Amino acid sequence: MGIQEKLSTSRRGFLKLGAAATAVGSAIASSRLVAMEQELGGADYSPVTGEKRKAVPYTCMACNIEDGGVAMIENGRIVKLEGNLKHPNTRGKLCAKGNSGFLHVYDPDRIMTPLKRVGKRGEGKWKRISYDEATSLLAEKLRAVIERAKAEENHEILNEIVMKWGRNRTGGAVKRFMHALGSNSMVNHTNICESSKKVGLEPSWGPDIESCDWANTKYILNFGSNILEAAYFMNPNAQRLVDGVVGNRAKIVTFDPRLSNSAGYSHEWHAPYPGTDAAIVLAMANVIMNEGLYDADFVRDWTNVTAEQLIAHLKPFTPEFAEKESGVSADDIRRIAREFATTKPATTFSYRGPVKHLWGAYQEAAIHMLNVITGNVEKKGGYCLPRGMGWPQPEPVPPAGPALSAIAKPPLYPLASHAVSTNAPYMVMRGEAKVSVWMSYYDNPLYTYPSSHVWRAFLGDESLVPFFTSFSCYMSETTEMADLIIPDVTYLERHDPESMPSGLYPCLSIRQPVIQPLGGTQEFRKTLIDVIHKVDPDGSLGIRKYFAFDSVEDWMKQHFDNIPGLKEEGGYERLKKDGVWPVYGKVDKETAKLVDDNGNEVKAEYGLYTTEIPDEEMVGTEISEEGTITRDGKPIGVRINGKNYVGFGTPSRKIELFKEEWRTFGFNPLPTYKRLPSRDKKPDELVLTTYKVNVHTQSRTASLKYLAEMYHKNPAWMNPQRAARLGIKDGDLVRITSPLGYIVTRAHLTEGIHPEVVAISTACGHSAYGRLATLKQRDPAARWAQGNDPDIANNVWWDDRGVHPNPIIRLSVDPIGGSQGWYDTVVKVTPAQAGDKYGDTDVSIEQAMKDYDEMLRYAYTGDLHRAAHKEVDIDWNNLPEPKLTGH
Amino acid sequence: MPANDFKIPDDGGAATSGPASPVTDMSRPELQARAGLYALLARCLESEMDANLLHLFRGPLKETVDELGLDLGEDVMNARAEDVLENLAEEFTALFVAPGGVLPYRSVFETGRLFQTQADQAEAAYKAAGFAFRNVYSGEFSDHVAVMLAFVGRLFERQLAFDEADNASAASACAVQRETFLREQLGPWVIGWSRRARGCALHPFYRTILELTEQVVWEDVSACSDQATLKRLALSNRRRLMRQTADPDFRKASGL
Ligand code: SF4
Fold it and tell me: What is the ipTM of this complex?
């Protein structure tokens, strides 16, 4: 029988053979024809002309992880972005957001020209003006404040110049600008992000974040972090997590009320009641300490507590107690504690989940402690210090403004070293701070803040905010309220110095324009120079000298040209070429590890705190009884067992599990657990939580077509059993009501959520941010020529833009770390009422103001603080007076 | 010019009946008129109304405007000049500059992105004719409708000059250049774009200018294109709706 007959000459025969061949897979794969990127990595070619595209390195800023990228340029246009193989932590890979970032550049809804408001504030009526006119107008407003401060001889007036930012990656430019103007009123966004994590960590060991050695670990305890999708260092951490779990057979256990993709990837997922992580962690610590599983040497030598002290402190926090609080079984807690303590090396990781609560800083301090008592700190495969590099500021550097600013650092939150930005509008509305010129940079509080409607009321009120400038290149909900818009460029068209501790290899990197700013737009840095030159045209105010840069590139050179090591290799020019410095090695195509020229893995350094201080540097130092080595009163190291180590960045140079400063303000100095008000909700109520998804940032990616198509609606996740009790089916319209008011959205029923929780993602439900985010045009589209963007006209197949939960989320500030308690709002979920429409939102300003007052009761001067901290040994009648603090 | 006697068929069929008259045969007054018309449209769409332009409409052009029954808006002809200018500047910005407007760029109309190869093509055509594009405000590109219209106007002007200098071959080359540009760079989008923008314009001044733009360009494109080209151009202007027929709810309610 011939082949034809065997195959029955039929298509079916060929299909069969093909299917069989497919099944044997890689056994017959050609070894000659390989995927293009594998061979080419870092080079790219035009499919039309075959010509090599120009490759320009940059630092990604589609989100805040600052991965290294390379832009492929063809005919002066960005045609593709890819990861920079020379960046030791990015290792050639960008996430979906990073890959889509170039759409920002060519987005027709980008603001390309300065706009001056001509209608009422927020009405959307504009007149275009030039950059020159715009910077002159802003300079005139700023100069007026400076002159008034002079005339009235009142420095505090300078603080009426306020800069509020969301994402400030300018490497000090904003601070230089504000200090040059004499103002300290810089309001960041950190408390809506992870500030309580920072404050939980900084007094403990110095830095504000950990850098887990994922790839070399054997055990990961993940508390409330969506490592694979959204958490800090998302792309580098996700890569190394996979290296660890797949390549090193590490076990990962995740605690999260929601089944995120990271939880789903874990060997075990436990869904605790929101905000009870510390109960679980302290119970684990209790088991580890009481069963003698702790690292006695490390606790003795490197902490400021004794094992006995810890055991006594942890006594009430038994696994049974934790089970009652969290719902996670005591048996599981015991088992995991033992596994964690006996599997070496091991590490925890945590991000927003545990800390975005009232008293979130306690939770982070507790998680940190697990690594300390098990001796995993700075071990290969353990819980490491972050590794970054600094750069100098060009001289002369302006001094801080002469008067301390309440809006920048609210006095009722003395431990919140990353400030309390959520309080800014309330403080102004209450007369606790004053504004003359409000400037907004990469910031959208009308969307991203809790009780976001308060910001609309605040920025919409010209008596509170007489002049408002936004530097955004997108018409966000906030920028819509501006009097003047001076558009910045996108991150692919600007200069910045960078160093992000996103892995174990410290490096510097730069952002540089991969194309010239589109259509003659102007980067923020240049706008700052222009404004200062116009505020102080002849230098008589003494401000101009701080911005005496010939160009933006000149400014960058001054950051980089004198860094030892880099200088010898070409300084800024070298960085422009590679995008990153140093270049440690190359990415091995098989293992994806960083290897040297001989193919050996580039070794990371560990045990940084045990670096010994050379004898010659000990000259002139003093050593305290506890071993702290100081020079001129400043701690520089610690003597342990006769050796002089640099130690940790704390006053004692040891890990300070006991934080005396916390006690001063009536907080528990040791990591503890406080039962949240939301833990005592009524049975018919739920806790509302939010989360980020893998293809969006909080707010500013909603206009990116690739990403909007992938994710654009955010129904409320509910547990089916709970929903059934409430009479709610999958896809039903529901009303979610908090004391602030309600939203109407849809329910998505899934087992992947704690029964007492309703979860709604961020990134959806925009009322501004371009056509794609809002799905609305300026006017109803004509029957043909629908929109002038054919993608939006033809390819937007969805008509659901989601519903934004923030208006019903209550202000709730951690009195220690300052974080917003995003996961503390208690709500009722009911089937929608007659007349309810999807997206309806009805919220109260009055209730928001009451929430502010209620929240202050938890601040260190408040009655609820005192009631919750009876165990603290302090003279409650003599707490320090609230006072303004510096910057 | 009659305002309503011209239709682009919905299905992209030929727009005009009868053979197209070769524009190269235009009389000198016709060439001059065309040059002026394109220059006027370009000026109106290039930047906000200013006192000079307002003066033109209220003075030298008033009779013609009235004669043709062009509705420029009651305020344009009679209201306080500062108010008119302020009002029209806002309308101009909303329509053509600010996010949410109908951006007047061929790149955006055809690709949904600013500054794509369409801008290079326009620039190349200007360069071949000895012109260069220079932006006044940031965010202006060479494939702006007004720059393209101005270019056609300049080519009419130049053709007239050659004609008056009895340089027939140069005049003819000019006509070819113009017709090619009309067919290849203005024709594929300006008609559709003008209609879209007209649908969004709130002020009669821009509605009228955009309607005129649509008609003038279509008339000139029709005059120099064969039936097949016209059909293609009509289709490309139409940007037919192509909604996916698949059920968008096939994705779980989570949107994942
Ligand atoms: S995680 Fe993604 S968006 Fe963020 S910096 Fe890295 S590649 Fe860019």
Answer: 0.89
- Give the distance from residue B61's alpha carbon to the nearest chain A alpha carbon, in angstroms: 26
Number of structural domains, chain A?
Answer: 4
Candidates A859, A461, A846, A525; CA nearest to A665 is: A859
pLDDT of residue A15: 63
A374 located within any domain? no
Closest-CA distance, A406 to chain B, in angstroms, reads 36
In the predicted model, what is the mean pLDDT of residues A242-265? Answer: 97
CB contact under 8 A, B253 and A111: no
Residue A32: the pLDDT is 67
**Mutation pick for ligand 1 pocket among A97, A227, A698 (CB with most ligand atoms within 8 Å):** A97
Backbone angles phi, psi at A52, to 5 degrees: -70, 135
List all residues 6 or more positions away from A793 whose beta carbon is below 8 Å from its beta carbon: A781, A785, A786, A787, B239, B241
Ligand 1: distance of its center to the CA of A555 in Å?
Answer: 26
Q: How far is the CA of A93 from the centre of ligand 1 (A)?
A: 9
* Averaged pLDDT of chain A: 93
Distance CA B151, CA B144 (A): 11
Which of A63, A129, A126, A128 is CA-nearest to residue A96? Answer: A63
d(CA A517, CA B115): 12
- Whole-angstrom CA distances from A443 to A158, A220, A254, A423 are 22, 34, 32, 15
Residues A715 and A827 placed together within one structural domain of the fold: yes
Residues A821, A689 share a domain: yes
For residue B137, the tally of other CB atoms under 10 A from its CB is 16
Q: Are residues A692 and A660 in the same domain?
A: no
- pLDDT tens, position by position, B25-80: 789 999 999 999 999 999 999 999 999 999 999 999 999 999 999 999 999 999 99
| Interface touch B116/A779, C-beta < 8 Å | no
How many whole angstroms separate alpha carbon B182 and alpha carbon B188?
Answer: 9
Query: Distance between CA atoms of B120 and A211, rounded to whole angstroms?
Result: 47
B90, B100, B115 member nearest A518 (Cβ):
B115
Domains in chain B, ordered, with CATH? 20-237 (1.10.3480.10)
Q: How far does the centroid of ligand 1 lie from the alpha carbon of residue A169, in Å? A: 14
Same domain, A852 and A806: yes
A166 plus A129 within the same structural domain: yes
Q: Which residues contact A317 (CB under 8 A, 6 or more apart)?
A: A279, A282, A283, A285, A286, A673
Does one domain contain both A614 and A740? no
- Please name the residue that has the structure tokens 């800083």: A361
Q: Is A62 in the pocket of ligand 1 (CB under 6 A)?
A: yes
Answer whether residue A344 is part of any domain: no
Which structural domain, as residue segments, surrounds residue A726? Answer: 678-856
In this structure, the answer to whether residues A401 and A455 fall within a common structural domain is yes
pTM of the model: 0.93
